[in-house]
Batch of 2 targets.
Target 1
Amino acid sequence: MKVRAQISMAMNLDKCLGCNTCTVTCKNVWTNRQGAEYMWWNNVETRPGPGYPRQWENQDKHNGGWVLDGGKLKLRIEIKKDYKPPGLDDYYEPWTYEYEVLFSEKQTDQQPVARPISLIDGRPMDVSNGPNWNDDLAGTDLLLEDPNLDPLQKSIYTQFKDVFMMYLPRICNHCLNPSCLAACPRKAIYKREEDGIVLVDQSRCRGYRYCVAACPYKKVYYNWKTGKSEKCILCYPRIEAGQPPVCALTCVGKIRYVGVLLYDADKVLDVAAEPDPTRLMRRFIDEVLLDPFDPDVISAARSAGIPDDWITAAQRSPVYKMVKKWQVAFPLHPEFRTLPMIFYVPPLSPVVTTFEQAYGAKITDVFPRVSELRIPVKYLASMFTAGDTALVEQALKKLIAVRIYERSKNVTEPGLADKAKQALAEAGLTEQDAEEMYRLFAIARYEDRFVIPTNPKRYANQPQLQRGVAGLP
Amino acid sequence: MRRPELLLPGVALAVAVVLAALGVMVVTAQESAVLVKFINGSLPVDPASPLWPKPADVPLTSQTLVYPLAPAVENRAVSVSAVYNGTHIAFLLTWKDATQDVAKPGGLDVFPDAVAVQFPVSRAQLPYICMGTVDNPVNIIYWRAGVGVENLVAGAGYGLSPQQREALGLQTTPTSPVELLPDSAQVVQAYAVYKDGAWYVVLVRPLGSVHPLMSSLADDFSAAFATWDGSKGERGGLKATSGWVQFHLERPIFAATQPTQPAPTATQTSATTVTQTYVVETTPAWAWVVIGVLVALLAVVAGLALRRK
Ligand code: SF4
Ligand code: SF4
């Protein structure tokens, strides 16, 4: 067992408003520069939809991630050699408006109009695509491009009364088996030993864009101005100081949780090469991610040089609780085999419904059953568990059970207490679990959502030699 | 038990012979020398100028050694002609490329067409053809369509102490085997034209060196070439490269340092120089023989040890 610690994030999708505050703060802090206008290190997708860049999940088109080739992990770009990295068409041409006109125009009968102009070359342009185009009326025809909708769902989806939606905020997953890193012949991408953050070393990068094509999440972006590739850095200068990344800090819905996960580096490649994707998903949680209370894990962590405050942080980690203890948070598309380390609690929404007829399902109670939820479990499973609906159902059951339990504490209704007990039992939760889950999911304070130990730079043994390289000032 | 004793030295000797033969082949497979024409006056920067001598065709092959490998191994060529005067040297590089790929703002999926010329930094022995080694670096001129030209050094980085590197104007810690020389050594000019399915690129640089890691071309020299076809996704290691090519400076009758003399047209060297084959020292054949003999000796010792048991 080779224990490593990683700063990881969990997002509770039920609470995401789709406000994009995370996106905008990230943009203002990191990508508010020429060459980076089209980059959204953090973006929030309205799903179903094509995502950003368009159809990033469709690897026949984008060639990201790993595949098994004779039992061995191989990059998809190694197999299909005549690929191209995505072009501006797959993203969009960033634009602003010619605001100056509003001040300088001579007085006429017509109001002056600020026309859209390209942020790339300043020429007037027609806006025909955007980072979340399907959110606009203009882009609704793109909805059905979502690769997670199977043909049956597509036909259901076109029935207006069965329409469903959810938000999916995305950042780089700081994967355990990053295909971006593996694809770089210049070895410009590295995963930091101390906290698992995956970075592109700007002084090594030569702009070859193998990483851009190889990342199945399309979270490396090529800067046409600098000729180098860039990606989410998980706000590492903030993380090192024990602060959450800005997307998590500013999140209006308070959906983001940041904490330490311990993992077994020796298991990573073996699990990433597990032939059955749903088994891969389960083994990722069971074998790769470690229990920070297990005495063996603790002693192995200590001998691997992980400081005690990191081990304590791993025990208090909200991400550990959601992912491993309660198993209600899942990685995005584990079948891409990169072992992504950003996790999602699947949404129940809308939970409360009385419009039985409108929703077509048999509504049996205040809280619906998992089978009565509006977002098809199959759709969620296609996104988060490599198609394993049982895992998603189990998680949703837990989330509903907690709500029934909380309701039973506040509402006097005959038989409700028993119903709550039964729901908890069915979901495999104790009352204490439910209480803890309620606190963490609904009313957590800052210090419960963000448990981030400071970074002692324990692997930088020769800082004088590393001056000017890889983030050392 | 006598068999292995004979077998091992036998195999070793055979290997030695093959290696020696390969060594000789490597040495003799050099291109003939390209004559660098002397011009008394300014060098042409227009590819169409009549001043350019007849070009030599240098064959290029896709590299097949390291990831990422080319989609298909294909054979290409670059035509090279060169001229010099008292202070500068210019190369005209011409190669066919059906598509013009030029880096442009917002060109996220554009890989620019490119060409590179590599020179040994030291004259003692030819460096490793694939961008030199720590103890024998190469100086590279790298031009990319829409990006511009860079004067680079390859191989040197990891062989120098931080103090040496700082003195050379390089970043304290090397980040790459290929590095940009400091600003003071960015003295190469490029003029490029794309016409009728071919690139015409003129590269002009000082004849001498302006940096310890830049090659001086004031005497006969070797160079190697590479081209990148952007439309095939070629960048970095995906490229087609040549072997070392010898360049021979045409000697002016009147020293270039005497500007008052009328323009010299007669030259000492004759056209026959062009076809003369230069034997180039790579790893010399005798070294392969020595290696072979050493391997054989080791094998005998191993055989003896085996017999004792
Ligand atoms: S999500 Fe991030 S770490 Fe994972 S492959 Fe993509 S860029 Fe690399
Ligand atoms: S700030 Fe939070 S709530 Fe708003 S879109 Fe981002 S993740 Fe969702």
Target 2
Amino acid sequence: MTNSISEIKDADCILVTGSNTTEAHPIIALEIKKAVKKGAKLIVIDPRRIELSKIAILHLQQIPGTDVAWLNGMMRVIIEENLHDKNFINNHCEDFELLKEAVYEQSLEDIEKITGINSSDIKEAAILFAKADKSTILYSMGITQHTTGTDNVLSIANLAMLTGNIGKESTGVNPLRGQNNVQGACDMGALPNVFPGYQKVTDHDLRNKFEEAWNVSLSNKVGLTVTEMMKEAATSSLRALYIMGENPMLSDPDINHVEESLKSLEFLIVQDIFLTETAKLAHIVLPGVSFAEKDGTFTNTERRVQRVRKAINPLGYSLPDWKIIRNISNALGYPMRYNSSYDIMEEIRYLIPSYAGITYERIDNFGLQWPCKNIDDPGTKFLHKDKFVRGKGKFHSVKYIPAQEAPDEKYPFIFTTGRMLYHYHTGSMSRKAKGLDEICPQGYVEISLEDSQELNISEGGEVKISSRRGQISTMVKINQGLRKGVVFMPFHFVECAANTLTNPALDPKSKIPELKVAAVNIEKF
Amino acid sequence: MEIIKINIDNQQVQVPKGTTILKAAEIAGIEIPNLCFHKRLNPNSVCRVCVVEVKGESSLVSSCSYTIEKELTIYTDNERVKTARKLVLELIMSTHPNDCLLCENNGSCKLQDYAYQYEVEVFKFTRERPKYNIDKSNPFIIRDYNKCILCGRCVSICHQEQCSDIINYTHRGFDTKVSTYFDRGLEESSCAFCGQCVSVCPTGALSEKVAKGKARSWELKKVNTICPYCGCGCSIDLNVKDNQVIKVTSPENESINNGNLCVKGRFGFDFINHPERLKSPLLKDKNGNFKEISWHEAITTIASKLREIKDNYGSNAIAGLSSAKCTNEENYVFQKFMRAAIGTNNIDHCARL
Ligand code: SF4
Ligand code: SF4
Ligand code: SF4
């Protein structure tokens, strides 16, 4: 997030898109609700009717995969109505002409056809957003998990810059990160192209810095992403995989392919707290510990680095993950000498400039938000204050590109996936929590009332869903507020794993798979 | 901001105009007992336990809602106040079940503490109130309205913080009760099971189902940490006894969630001590069955196999998947391991999933 969670309640207009906030980020949803109580205008743009739609002034239901189109539509209206923030654009941004050209490419009528949203609604949303003093955009995987995910995000940034809603309190471009420490994992360089702190592996000087600190020579070749790893494993150019605390057998697209890939590996190490679907395929399984058994830090979605504390001793012979890795590294002949998570944090601070001021002592009571450059730096509540981090905010020319798979005769429905309140990610934790599994013991597919009538299926009935990649069966929930032709399924359940059906096609830049749009067929069981 | 001088229990204190007496007392280091007031909520002024004497006022006033507008002399603990407070407590106790011995809240109950402090005569009055069935119908919250003192905190927090109106007062007089629409179970309402109501209940009327019978409050050690269930990063307290997490409570420290939690954060922790947790390294044998091995065997097997693959096919034949569920420190060490020990940038995690 460019801005902070506590700023949301003071916004005048909130645009929520691709995020079912009350279920996936419940505490952030409370801030949205408080803002609305104080008079903020809430615009929800989501194919499903979600709880927030009830308190929204506008709920626009786009056809999944058409986000660039409605975003460009909104920007076109804003420019035509002369509501863009000319001062901000002149002083802080560049390439406005490129943006203008791109958004003028399609008429509102075309956009209405593409997105399925009435042009008058797009117009109303645009005007509300542009006229409000402080407008903020909150989004999540509904925006990013597309083959055009990067374009969607750039388009959102365009909208924020166009209206001067960045670098000020209660505004900004605010991705809500799904997993508890996805922000931290990225910050720490658990990515194939960057060292910790987003320092590029291809940059000679930066690589030198890490080579010196780690006393070893390092590769300058960008590595493989998860989805690429699965492809290479299937062709045996990848031989060994070490998986720590992840369960690609449920979280990754096209599970049948993932299974095949993992099975063709010569050596698979899985480190986890349960024998997950992925661990079952491993040659060797290592017992890690839960968050309650270790010290360390998590970085939340507003860049706040917070202390995780050990509450109980590791169960059985399980060990904190860092100790296991340290021991393997020592056995391989690359010595690691950490005795505690504290020692590791000290090294992190030394190598990541934006973490330099973050010490365990300073975050003992409440975490600090990076960038936090030295011991006296109070941290950063919102980014791009007074000036963009890169100098000028760059407008990108983003044009609408359709999703990879469109519904056709054989697969006439658009299938989209997401999260729900009672479960988390692949369910390896939440489904082992008694209360949560009791209140929500099984997966389901949401379909619209009209579709359910046409297919002659009632609530609770069983259906078979198939895509080009596989098929599953599950129970039907009728969602009266869903768009006709769109079906939704949470991905937490192994018995009916939604990712058996999803499309592994990738965004060319971010390498994110298109989990939000696949073509499927539905039949009564 | 206008500053006003007040005299509170013979202490001179200066407070901003509009401060409540309860707050002013806190500034002066004086604790005024209260049941219905909660610092995160607007005052309900219903319990009358926080009454104090203000010189010049004919009756005692509720300190939680009385604001200081002019110079005042206040007595928070004189005989008149103490007698009134005791009477209020005795009236509350007259309808209370008095089964502290078995109550989940025993030892962390404000009502119990004050009854003790004010030496209340528990059976001084006898009043009849309807007997309620204990509601255990949902998986998370036990509701025993026989113990409810109608302080209204649960109703306020559901409304003010959770922005829901799942529960409210129904009926009148002795029949007054907190309930959902039509007095159905919470599971039949749109309750989100955030448990905010449980967190503020001053008595044992609302309690966590998972923790029932597992620990007395004084046996629990609280450890402050961060919820592992989403990117919000809420602050939680793990309540621990005998190496088991018994329940999660909302801490008082500064945090992004100000004491609020959602159902996963508050009630989703029992995976921690789950019997299926992996407790030893496992090696798959020729028949595809796992057998337990020692750490020594596990580490040497891994090291020799990785070395073999690296020697035969190069570093890039090896890849690592780190975890968005693990700590920063672990992610750091994992990527360093892949880059420095293995020699590849084949490192990723499911940020995109
Ligand atoms: S659990 Fe939350 S939503 Fe349900 S009644 Fe209590 S405060 Fe309200
Ligand atoms: S249930 Fe608890 S919080 Fe609610 S009114 Fe009764 S005593 Fe107060
Ligand atoms: S308590 Fe709920 S909202 Fe808070 S971090 Fe945990 S899962 Fe997220």
